[in-house]
Amino acid sequence: MSSTARSAAPAALAALSNLDDPLRRKLYEYVTESATPVSREEAAAAVEIGRTLAAYHLDKLADADLLTISYQRPAGRSGPGAGRPAKLYARATKEMAVSVPPRDYELLARLLVSSVEQDASGAVRNAVNEAALDAGRRSAAESGGNLLAALRSCGYLPQVTDEGRVELRNCPFHLVAQDHLDVVCGLNLRLVEGMIAGSAEPSARAVLDPRPDRCCVVVDPSES
């Protein structure tokens, strides 16, 4: 394990310990599942607590780098007399992983992806893609055929649009994807295709549609 990873472990442990508190975890889950940043008032109402208590816990989560903070004025209000901008909270894109004793699974993932890239025959890539398909099918079966539940179990944050399209607001393999985009996007696609095949929506379709701040794969609804 690298010295950087070792030094980061105590900080990650400290950050993740914030989620031991049931109320703080509820607030964290509410914010991370929201497609847009949320205010203290919205978070307080969602978990049925007072605004001051919600603000305290939200700020603690932000201090631990589990949430990010931004400020925004209410729509249609600007200039003098518009009031103070609202404090908003959103999911942090920073990833944290802790194991005891320490393990460097990111290094293992990078080695495997590099093997795919260096294999000119394509045999390794094909094997990895088949394994991803099988893993997706198993995830769907373990989730009772529920596609959204299967996606969540694999670390995705699915969001259904008004048109019925499923967008994935994160990539579980983001750290590796930054340097190996082609391989990881292909793996994402096969993994989601496997989930669809094993779900109650087998005619849905996974397609590559990369955009900033979300997974490269989206799921188009079944055609009626």
Model description:
The structure is a single chain. The protein has helices at 3-16, 22-33, 40-47, 51-63, 105-118, 123-142, 147-153, 174-177, 181-197; strands at 38-39, 67-72, 86-91, 158-160, 166-168, 205-208, 217-220. It has 224 residues and is of the alpha+beta class. The strands form two sheets. A four-stranded antiparallel beta sheet has the order 4-5-7-6, covered by helices on one side. Strands 1-3-2 form a three-stranded antiparallel beta sheet. Strand 4 and strand 5 (166-168) form a beta hairpin. Helix 2 packs across helix 4, helix 3 (40-47) crosses helix 4 (51-63) and helix 6 (123-142) packs parallel to helix 9.
Compute the number of strand runs.
Answer: 7
**Rg from Cα:** 20 Å
Structural category is: alpha+beta
> What's the helical proportion of residues?
40-55%
Distance between the termini: 51 Å
DSSP summary: helix tally: 9
Summed over residues and divided by their number, the pLDDT gives a mean of: 84
Strand order, main sheet: write it out. 4-5-7-6
Backbone shape: globular
Unreliable spans are 1-8
Strand fraction band?
5-15%
Largest sheet report: 4 strands, antiparallel
N-to-C series of helices and strands: HHEHHEEHHHEEHHEE
